[in-house]
Design brief:
Elements: E1 2-6, E2 9-12, E3 17-24, E4 32-38, E5 45-50, E6 57-59, E7 67-72, E8 77-82, E9 91-101, E10 104-109, E11 113-118
Parallel strand pairs: 2-11
Antiparallel strand pairs: 1-3, 3-8, 4-5, 4-9, 5-6, 7-8, 9-10, 9-11
C-alpha cells in the first residue's frame, strides 16, 4: 500500500493550489480519504475528507468555503483544491486512507507535501 501526495509548493496569499494523492491500494473505492496538515511546531490537524463514494465531504472550519476535496476512483486519486490561500495554511499536507471491515480498522498515510503561503 502506498499513498503519494504531490502538488505542494510556494504560493502567494490569495493564490490557489491543487494537491493530489495517488493511492496504490486494492479496492480503493472501499476507503474513505482524508487530508491532514501539520504546521511547524504544531500538532497534525484534520483538514478535509471525502467518503468512499465521493458523495460526502467534511471540512475543518478554518478551510470551509476555500478548500474542496474530491476523488477520482478511476484514477485511484484524491484531490484537495485550495483557493484563497492564507499564510496560516502553510504546512505539510498529508493524505490518509481509512477503511473498516469485519477484521478491523485500517489506515495508511502518505509522505506529505509542503505548502508554503507567503504574505
Amino acid at each position: 500500500v502506498q499513498l503519494q501526495a504531490s502538488g505542494g509548493g510556494l504560493v502567494q496569499a490569495g493564490g490557489s493550489l491543487r494537491l493530489s494523492c495517488a493511492a496504490s491500494i486494492p479496492s480503493f473505492s472501499n476507503y474513505d480519504m482524508g487530508w491532514f496538515r501539520q504546521a511547524p511546531g504544531k500538532e497534525r490537524e484534520f483538514v478535509a475528507s471525502v467518503n468512499w463514494s465521493g458523495g460526502s465531504t467534511l471540512y475543518a472550519d478554518s478551510v470551509k468555503g476555500r478548500f474542496t476535496a474530491s476523488r477520482d476512483s478511476a484514477k485511484n486519486t484524491v484531490y484537495l483544491h485550495m483557493n484563497n490561500l492564507k499564510p496560516e495554511d502553510t504546512a505539510v499536507y498529508y493524505c490518509k486512507a481509512h477503511t473498516r471491515n469485519f477484521l478491523g480498522s485500517y489506515e495508511y498515510w502518505g509522505q506529505g507535501t509542503l505548502v508554503t503561503v507567503s504574505s
